[in-house]
Amino acid sequence: VFNPEWQGPGKSLSASWRQTSLKIFGTGETVSFPVQTCTKVRDVKEALANSLMVDSGGISFVVKQGCSSRLQLDIEEVGSQVTVRGIESFRPTAHRWPHPVCVIGAGYHGLKTMMMYLKSGNSNVVCFDRNARVGGYCWI
């Protein structure tokens, strides 16, 4: 939010509002929101990174300029039509663990838990059981 106290001596920052549209590279997903003319790329990157729970260093903004595209620097004012690289969606992503989720027991509830993980899109699971057969003690 713009605060008149942020303007140092000799500075004149614009307080007018304009519409900015962010589009994810490779997808058709877009989001539009109002920003002030003086809003910097760093401010939008940090707000986007905080809402998506990702690192702002991995996000880059590309703006179309004439017949070519140009990477925007953090100290520049954010463009009106910006392509975002470094994220897959404008929705928060689940944390990716470096190791698989372990389910102990291949009985009814262990298998059901693994199926729920697979149904939700997480295939990084492993199951351990002390028996040689799947199914727990129901079929032994």
From TrEMBL:
The domain of life for this entry's organism is Eukaryota
Q: What is this protein called?
A: Uncharacterized protein
